[in-house]
Amino acid sequence: MKKNLSVFLIFLTLLIVTNEVSFATIYPLPPKNSALIGKNIIITIPENNKLPLESFAAKYNVGISNMLEANPGIDLFLPKSGSTLIIPQQLILPNASRKGIIINSAEMRLYFYPKGSHTVVVLPIGIGQVGKNTPMNWITTVFRKTINPTWTPTNKIRKEYKAHGKILPTTFLAGPNNPMGKYALYVGRLYAIHGTNVNFGIGLRVSHGCVRLRNNDIKYLFENVPVGIRVQFINEPVKVTIEPEGSCYLEVHNPLSKNQKELNSNDPVPLILSNKIKKILLDSKSKQKNIDEMIMARSGMPVKVN
Description:
- By secondary structure, the chain is α+β, with helices and mostly antiparallel strands.
- It has two domains: 7-234, Beta Barrel (L,D-transpeptidase catalytic domain-like); 238-304, no CATH class.
- It is 21% helix and 24% strand.
- It is built from eight helices and 19 strands.
- The strands form six sheets. A six-stranded mixed beta sheet has the order 1-8-7-6-16-10, with no helix packed on it. It has a four-stranded mixed beta sheet with strand order 11-12-13-15, covered by helices on one side. A three-stranded antiparallel beta sheet has the order 17-18-19, covered by helices on one side.
- Strand 7 and strand 8 (119-124) form a beta hairpin.
């Protein structure tokens, strides 16, 4: 269950957030024998708070799913004044080549490794709904980039909307009504990394398979990513690293629901550690009790387990 939330209710609430303040989070790239980056931030919700969680997520450039994992029980619509909020900005780099763009659907983050910069840029993303999945095991490239893209819904999408009483135009022209926003990077024939025309959906499964970013983030990506850059899609809910001094850190996210039944269930989606991760944990002499607690909590934050 990847946060069983009503997209309609979220939409109504988060539309009140009109000022996007997010910007690309840039980390120094650690040595090859290290994968732990950043530090978490703890803030206090201001007195007389009237802002939803999305406002704080956007301010610190974090997705809604990451905020909910790090702060179980937090009020999505109106975080309590005076309460503390963890901003999960410490993370483990994915187990993938440190080049180009890596999109990890499971944690709803995009990693961009600017060539020759010795940095990694981390951006929160929205991904495809259940049954309209964003790719999870695919290597491709950015075929082209477009400012002010148009969107032509497929016949299947038009029929889907019509069944709910909404008639879509044949083509969405560039402008405020275009759900692709102002910038688009096309990866393959059917998918794009693009912006949005609404202030919600980052850290949620709301698209028809494309990768959605906040508008400031897609602008940054558009201006810094060249056509032809390598793009790898992965699905890695569990990440692990043994740091140079021997500390083993484990980061566990809620796996993506595979179907509507799993999405609607109150039970957590089953999580099975790969043999490779099991071996790393064994070699690091990690404590099974710590591992079990991490799998249960699924906080989305790295925790030392040995």
